[in-house]
Amino acid sequence: MGFKMGIVGLPNVGKSTLFNALTRTAAAQAANFPFCTIEPNVGDVAVPDARLDKLAAIAKSRQIIPTRMTFVDIAGLVKGASRGEGLGNQFLANIRETDAIAHVLRCFEDGDITHVENKIDPVADAQTIETELMLADLESVERRLANIVRKVRGGDKEAIEQERLLLAAQEALSAGRPARTVKVAPEEQKQWRMLQLLTSKPVLYVCNVEEASAASGNAFSARVAEMAAAEGNAHVVISARIEEEISQLDPDEAAMFLEEMGLEEAGLDRLIRAGYALLHLQTYFTVGPKEARAWTIPAGTMAPQAAGVIHGDFERGFIRAETIAYDDFIALGGETGAREAGKMRAEGKAYQVKDGDVLHFLFNT
Q1: For residue 112, what pLDDT is reported?
Q2: Measuring CA to CA, which of 3, 142, 316, 347 is 20 to 30 A from 73?
Q3: Contact 258, 264 (CB under 8 A)
Q4: How far apart are CA 365 and CA 346, in angstroms?
Q5: DSSP letter at 302?
């Protein structure tokens, strides 16, 4: 299980340049004019995880299979998108299909690249996007409320529950607050997600800075950091230009380039880590001579459901999970050493899988 992150923002902020870099393709045309991305471009990237390579080396795995993350480069948004301006309707439909939103914000000066608002103000840009999404959500909520009036009057329990959630969303949106600020009980989360409200999705602000500011950010990204902290959202600082250059290099050249730029890691790594934290995701591993593989699950997932990510039969016929903590697997030289040291545990259905667990599932066919 990976997840899908929509890359959104005003035109000419660097969305497509970032997408090209992250997916190591030229599928998205990066051009200096609005709407150069007419259709959403979708790219799958391997999630970098140094732990997987170390596990594979110990187990002498013939194949290494990382987990995947999907990026969707969505057409640039302008004011009035909620009313269908620009490519508004298409933009809003595409963003509904994502798990999280990465707001790419222009945090650099460049006289050669026009800004749709003719000024550099990333906080205002973020507010423009958020406002359009809230207006679209408010229209959707009001339409849904009108459609379920008869069912509510007839005492339909599901409609009554849906109305309660819709009214809570309407109250927040009318007050200028995104739907993600509404407190929803755990047992109502499924129905809440079915509402498909754009502003209920987690947000990650991506500050696209000039190359010289890639390591420490600049005054623009500092303002975004303050805004993100106030909202309880996350942010990362990335130079899309640098990421694009790195994507064209081999691993050794990329490492040297990063060192020269004063960067410890590529922006992709930071972006994925922030995305994982945003959606409360974690990784477990299956390791053997044939392959070493990473699997993504939500934090708090129980062993049978973790097994189900591999195959539904594993979950339905789950017996137990043979479990080794990552640190123990490395320190003891693999499965045999962990077993002899008593570090391999047999865990049942009530076991909550931990990040980095090395698992082997036993199940009935």
Answers
A1: 63
A2: 142
A3: yes
A4: 19
A5: B
